């Protein structure tokens, strides 16, 4: 292919957007219409027109997306693209501050705090400012970080941010302010920046230092931003300031796919940008089959700019609307379908399962493991890798194998008043004994928790069923431990309630552990599927993380009121964003789309939420039945 030939790989609308766009440009178009492709080809086009790589900046939503787009642009432009700036806003600001941070007294060797580090610092700031007796009335470290972050990303005042997120803490505004000041001082002291600091400080320098602004914006002749609907006001301003000299700022996005408002993203940016930008619209959808596009067109979220996509691919099959009995059936159904696709020769990398929250995938993870189907989870842990599930499994292991020291240590270290050394001494005593559980009851420790532990073993060893065993551990000790230890204890409790339920279907603890541990060691053991390619895996991901991506086969699971739309959004009346999220989900599929729901609604919802369950809006009610294939899968009824 001669270099300029690559333009033939675009349709006329896309070509327009690539060739005839200078100045402020907005490409607004529906899912799968080639927005990302336009930006990618625009880079190639600019290079072929003589622009140098270091004069271009590409902003994407993830690092991986930037890598992929650059690779593609390299291939079509026949250029190395060395020197191009590409990555997320955070990445770009990081580079900027290494260079210019010193002008506002940021040492160029600063370290970046991940969210765990930030939480530690916030925690200590909080305990320093607030006496123990009063901490109940102050937001937790995690909540403080959320407030701080909201304030930074929206440029709202502290008061507005508290009012928006946790109005009940408005009275504590003054103390919160002091904690945040302390938090900042501590970060300064450590020469460390959190994620928001990267953005805020970059904006600060660009808006106050006209020399630096001039210098950078003169160097950068073109700025291109993908997924513009999910940028926040700070990022938007940074992009504007960096394009000040040349004025070439091209952004692409889809208002109907704006799904990050909880992080301060505002699709109002699109509206504002529109006012003095040249607008390009693309109408053709290249991703999905005709039948899927028919369905997608009917599912446009409320309050979006009206759009009707035209499918380029003429044939296909209707999306499947699958009614299952409950989420165990759901897991079985999906795992078996995946197996069928594999048998038919479809690569597992072409298959994804999407859900609203990671905890919705627990049953599926187990079902996939049982069938030997390898899977990867996007930015989430396998549930057997999460701390709380590991704790419970460690306890269970000690009930079947009292010689396993690692598990004893893990359990003992959970107890108040038992540190590493004591835990080691106690576990040695237990595993060295002929009658380990009896030895445990004879050990004398002052700790209340230790007495509880004795009771747990006394009670639970009499029980055969693994679910009942976990329940004892959970009710006598672990429940309270969770509340005391984690801010997000509610989600963790929910996980454990699922685990208890799952375990209760097994006759013996050994059997249950074997199944769960198979899933744990899955990476090492070989799959029993035939002819798997290297690294061939099904993708499990939240819808949020699936943005911009596509697969041949997509399953959306647990489309039940309370699960998806999520209970929090139902409670807060934030249903619009859930609708956009569902829209993002259905538009990821190229050929096969499965939307799965339980006949009786969600069985995951905790007690006390009956009302929401009954009144909650279901996406299923919105689905035009003539555009889908309805199937039932109810084995367990
Ligand atoms: P999203 O809104 O989900 O981010 P998008 O608008 O960015 O979607 P792309 O990911 O760029 O869409 O394109 C969707 C699919 O269609 C990709 O596989 C892309 O390669 C293909 N595609 C886009 N335009 C064309 C074209 N002109 N010819 C052939 N294939 C195309
Ligand atoms: Mg895209």
UniProtKB/TrEMBL annotation:
Its EC number is 5.6.2.4. It comes from the Bacteria. ATP binds at residues 29-36. One of its GO terms (molecular function) is helicase activity. It catalyses: ATP + H2O = ADP + phosphate + H(+); Couples ATP hydrolysis with the unwinding of duplex DNA by translocating in the 3'-5' direction. SUPFAM superfamilies: P-loop containing nucleoside triphosphate hydrolases. The keyword ATP-binding applies. Keywords: ATP-binding, Helicase, Hydrolase, Isomerase, Nucleotide-binding. Belongs to the helicase family. UvrD subfamily. This is DNA 3'-5' helicase.
């Amino acid at each position: 292919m001669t270099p300029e030939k690559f333009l033939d790989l675009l349709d006329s609308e896309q070509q327009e957007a690539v060739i005839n766009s200078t100045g402020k440009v907005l490409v607004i178009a529906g899912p799968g219409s080639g927005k990302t492709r336009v930006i990618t080809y625009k880079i190639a086009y600019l290079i072929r027109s003589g622009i140098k790589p270091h004069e271009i900046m590409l902003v994407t939503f993830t690092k991986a997306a930037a890598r992929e787009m650059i690779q593609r642009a390299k291939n079509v432009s026949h250029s190395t693209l060395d020197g191009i700036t590409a990555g997320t806003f955070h990445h770009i600001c990081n580079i900027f501050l290494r260079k210019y941070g010193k002008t506002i007294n940021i040492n160029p060797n600063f370290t970046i705090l991940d969210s765990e580090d930030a939480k530690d610092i916030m925690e200590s700031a909080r305990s320093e400012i607030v006496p123990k007796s009063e901490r109940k009335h102050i937001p937790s470290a995690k909540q403080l970080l959320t407030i701080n972050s909201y304030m930074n990303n929206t440029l709202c005042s502290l008061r507005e941010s508290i009012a928006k997120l946790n109005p009940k803490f408005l009275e504590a505004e003054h103390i919160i302010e002091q904690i945040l000041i302390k938090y900042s001082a501590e970060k300064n002291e450590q020469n460390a920046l959190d994620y928001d600091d990267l953005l805020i400080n970059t904006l600060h320098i660009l808006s106050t230092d006209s020399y630096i602004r001039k210098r950078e914006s003169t160097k950068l002749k073109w700025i291109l931003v993908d997924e513009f609907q999910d940028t926040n006001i700070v990022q938007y301003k940074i992009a504007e300031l960096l394009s000040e000299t040349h004025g070439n700022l091209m952004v692409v996005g889809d208002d109907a796919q704006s799904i990050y408002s909880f992080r301060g993203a505002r699709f109002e940016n699109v509206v504002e940008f529109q006012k003095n930008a040249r607008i390009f619209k693309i109408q053709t959808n290249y991703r999905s089959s005709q039948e899927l596009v028919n369905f997608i067109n009917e599912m446009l979220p409320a309050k979006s700019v009206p759009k009707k996509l035209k499918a380029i691919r003429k044939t296909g099959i209707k999306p499947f609307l699958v009614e299952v009995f409950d989420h165990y059936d759901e897991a079985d159904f999906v795992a078996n379908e995946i197996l069928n696709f594999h048998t038919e020769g479809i690569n597992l990398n072409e298959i994804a399962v999407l859900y609203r929250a990671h905890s919705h995938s627990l049953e599926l993870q187990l079902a996939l493991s049982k069938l030997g189907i390898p899977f990867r989870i996007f930015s989430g842990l396998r549930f057997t890798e999460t701390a709380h599930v590991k704790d419970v499994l460690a306890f269970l292991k000690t009930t079947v194998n009292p010689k396993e020291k690692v598990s004893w240590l893990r359990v003992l270290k959970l107890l108040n008043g038992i540190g590493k050394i004591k835990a080691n001494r106690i576990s040695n005593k237990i595993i060295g004994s002929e009658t380990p559980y009896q030895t445990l009851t004879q050990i004398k420790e002052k700790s209340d928790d230790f007495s509880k532990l004795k009771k747990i073993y006394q009670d639970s060893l009499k029980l055969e069923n693994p679910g009942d065993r976990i329940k004892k551990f959970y009710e006598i000790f672990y429940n309270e431990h969770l509340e005391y230890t984690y801010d997000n204890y509610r989600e963790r409790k929910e996980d454990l309630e699922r685990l208890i339920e799952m375990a209760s279907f097994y006759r013996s603890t050994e059997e249950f552990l074997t199944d769960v541990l198979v899933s744990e060691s899955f990476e090492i053991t070989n799959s029993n599927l035939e002819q798997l390619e290297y690294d061939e895996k099904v993708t499990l991901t939240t819808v949020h993380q699936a943005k911009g991506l596509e697969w041949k086969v997509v399953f959306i699971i647990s489309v039940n009121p309370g699960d998806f739309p999520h209970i929090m959004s139902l409670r807060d009346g934030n249903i619009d964003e859930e609708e956009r999220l569902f829209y993002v989900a259905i538009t990821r599929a190229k050929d096969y789309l499965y939307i799965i729901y339980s006949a009786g609604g969600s069985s995951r919802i905790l007690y006390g939420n009956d009302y929401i369950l009954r009144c909650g809006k279901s996406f299923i009610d919105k689905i035009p039945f003539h555009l889908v294939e309805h199937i039932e899968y109810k084995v367990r009824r």
